[in-house]
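Reopening this ticket.

The earlier resolution said the output was attached, but the attachment link was broken on my side. Pasting everything inline this time so it's all in one place.
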Amino acid sequence: RCDLELAGVVVAPYASGLASLVEDEQELGAACVDIGGGATGLSIFVRRQMIYADCVRMGGSHV
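Inline output:
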């Protein structure tokens, strides 16, 4: 109805890392931890590449 096409799909920890880490952090190495209400995502970037991603079903509502 909106004439939009899906460009692609990515895993949530990857999207969180791209949105919150600057290029220098991605290049040198950084971890991004996204604590949501029901789940926590983790992504690790080195040399601008995501080398690890995981998600556990425990978040802020469990604290």
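Reporter confirms the inline version is readable. The chain has a mean pLDDT of 95. The beta strands are 30-35, 40-46, 49-56.
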